Amino acid sequence: MNTSLKQRMHGLPAGFRLLMLSDVLSGLAMGAGYVSISWWVVTMGGASDMAWFSTLTALVMLVALPLTAPLGDRFPKNRVIAFGIVLAMLSGLALATMAWFNFYQLAWVVASESMAMLAWAIVIPSMLSIASELVPANRLSDALSLQKSSQSIGNLIGPVIGGGLMAFMPAWLALGSYAVLLAIASVGASRIRIPPRSREHIQAESFIDQIRVGLRIRWRIPLERSWAFWGLITMTAYMPMVATLLPIKLHQLGLPAFWLGACEAAASAGLLIGSLWLTHRLLQYCSRPRARALALIALAAVFMVVALTDRPYLLLTMFAVEGVLLSITMLIGQTHRTLAVPEAYRARVSAINVLVAKLGGMLGPALAGVLLHNWSLDTAYLFFAVFHLLTVAPMLLLPGVNHFLSLSHDEVKDWYLHRYPEAFEPVSPAGDKLRQSI
After folding, report:
1. pLDDT tens per residue across span 334-344
2. What spatial distance separates the first Cα and last Cα of the chain, rounded to whole Å?
3. What is the C-alpha to C-alpha distance for residues 65 and 362, in angstroms, rounded to an integer?
4. Contact 377, 245 (CB under 8 A)
5. What is the 8-class DSSP label of residue 276?
């Protein structure tokens, strides 16, 4: 296991280095944008608006993800990423314009942010799977670790910028900075060069058939089906604690927007430490299944502390620890799940993972909004912390997960194809099925 940053960087192509730069810029923009937009909504509309905002924008991404997922397999991923980032930039400009004219209407804010959700639905599946086209399979673990680190660097700096601008500058300036950062990131993404590969067999399929393929692959593989279901339950508990209730809690404590940025930056700093060093060090001393179990149990304990404390610096510390633990669970699972899927299907299948997370990102905030009508913020926070704790055991007991994670990177490459070939069989075109039924 390589633990040296220099060793992990050695031999990686120039295209991957450009991807890391684009990830830094995208993370910077997303971090600054999340803090700026969330704080603006909480300040102007309060807790109710924040719950509606989180739920409705997550619903947009939920609908958009399966519809846009085939783009990353159908077209070059660098162009798909660049196009999506430009679309997100237009959303940022719309929000900055509203703030400039001191115009706040939740419906218009949701509509503008929905454009960004559509954009990230286009970007994220390709961003999650493009590394597999740039580096060989035996380097994918290093590549994903470095990619996660570059994203964390952007997410570390972005929330601080967003929080600082929202605390000391007009809202339009913070939101406008978000749009400028995205414009720069789109240029970086467009310059990534990926090796050419044949897409004729994919482009010959209809768009609807490609969507059906991605959904069917996940459904026909028992481990992935169970992982998706319990992942949805886990994300329903997790997302309100980091996206919906946190800005409300900090606002009720009388803290400025800078603290929301600081908590986001602390989580990103933890992700950076975990992805650059701690995960690799941990895997030298214990197996992947054991490391994942330790991280999931500790993560549940962290959120219990977050729910029960009102001390800002303790909150900050807990979010830093949360970032470290999250990096362990993400790197251990993501590498294997990416390699197990044949390259031609990876963007669509990655999109289903994001789809599950975003469905949780819709259900969780919606449930939080209902609870906040009858419960105090502290009670709602504690409910989600206990809920999250109860999901740990099922996630650890997924059928076959320990054997799967124990496979080497060479063994796991295309493992789903070899183990479940029926999941990758060609589908009959939707139009043919309709004609047959008539």
Report:
1. 778 888 988 77
2. 58
3. 13
4. yes
5. I
The helix or strand, by DSSP H or E, that contains position 396, with its residue range, turns out to be helix 392-396
3-class secondary-structure state, position 5: helix
Residue 136 in this model has a pLDDT that exceeds 80: no
Token couple for 258: 């800078």
Q: Which two tokens stand for residue 277?
A: 């060093």
**Dist. CA 277–CA 281, nearest whole Å:** 6
- Spell out a b/e string for 145-170, using b for 16 or more CB atoms within 10 Å of the CB, else e: bbbbbbbbbbbbbbbbbbbbbbbeee
Query: Would you say how long the chain is, in residues?
Result: 438
The amino acid occupying position 72 is G
CA distances from 288 to 39, 403, 408 (A): 38, 10, 10
Q: How far apart are CA 183 and CA 85, in angstroms?
A: 7
| CA 21 to centroid of chain Cα atoms | 18
Give, in order, the Cα–Cα distances in Å from 419 to each of 57, 221, 236, 337, 423: 37, 9, 30, 13, 9
Whether the Cβ atoms of residue 62 and residue 362 lie closer than 8 Å to each other: yes
pLDDT of res. 274: 85
Cα 305 from Cα 231, distance rounded (Å): 22
- Please tell me the distance from the alpha carbon of residue 97 to that of residue 51, in angstroms, as a whole number: 23
- Kindly report the pTM of this predicted structure: 0.73
pLDDT at 246 over 60: yes
Question: Is residue 320 within 8 Å of residue 269, measured between CB atoms?
Answer: yes
